[in-house]
Amino acid sequence: MRTLSLLILTAGFVAAPLPAQKGEEDPAPHLSKEEKIELIRGLTAETGIVKTFLPRSKKALEFNADGTWDQAEWKVIGREYGPVARVGDEVQITKVDLSKDKITFQINGGLNTRGKWYERIEGGMGSGNRGVPLSRGITRSAGTTIALHFPDRVPPMTAQEVKKLLAPVLDFSKRSATENYFDSLPPEIQEAIKAKRAEVGMTRDQVEMAIGRPRDRIRETVDGEELEDWIYGQPPGKITFVTFAGTKVTKVQDHYAGLGGSTAPPLKSPQ
Questions:
Q1: Between 20 and 30 A from 114 (CA), which of 35, 46, 133, 257?
Q2: CATH tag, 1-16+176-271
Q3: For strand 61-64 and strand 142-149, is the pairing parallel, antiparallel, or unpaired?
Q4: What is the C-alpha to C-alpha distance for residues 62 and 65, in angstroms, rounded to an integer?
Q5: Does the pTM of the predicted model rise above 0.70?
């Protein structure tokens, strides 16, 4: 099955021309895949101290890379839902998204004013009684989102440099959660992460630290065992399959799709 999938991938691929090939000047440097991985890895789960009024907001709060933001607008936004935390309190980055000209940070899970669908189910006792929510005492997400804007494109930069840009609103000066977690790992796992490779025995979090998020995930049951394959890479070139059984990696396989490949449906799991 794997051989057939790779044969499909290696038929008729035509690469899209790069800006330079089309005679267009690239206005700003692109982030490489490795740089994107490093940014997401170095910023996700980081904790910072609130330094100014930080409102809860449904839409992303606009913050400029030059350290400026519309403080009056933030205060207006805060009148609806209030602040995420008081100045001096600790908050956490729970998700990081990268786009052409901005980095978006979800803080404390973002803002969810409605809660989960099952929190809104109501029940009653007999006819005529007013329904009441069946779920009580559930803490709903009450965070926010910050969009760090750049003039043209997100330039190549480190997570530490991004933290410095956010310094007017969040202080990340203490030792990071990522550094603490990394130092707690076995030496062989640390070496694999530094080398940007997946190894048998790694957890999902450790694989993401090493090589980032996969482009595809495939689940299947083989001989009664549930397996999950994470797939990295695009044809033509190296395609890596990282297989999980339970919470740990049990197999890492590299395959190479030759020149002249084409995009195709997601690869089948290795047999």
A1: 46
A2: 3.30.1450.10
A3: parallel
A4: 10
A5: no
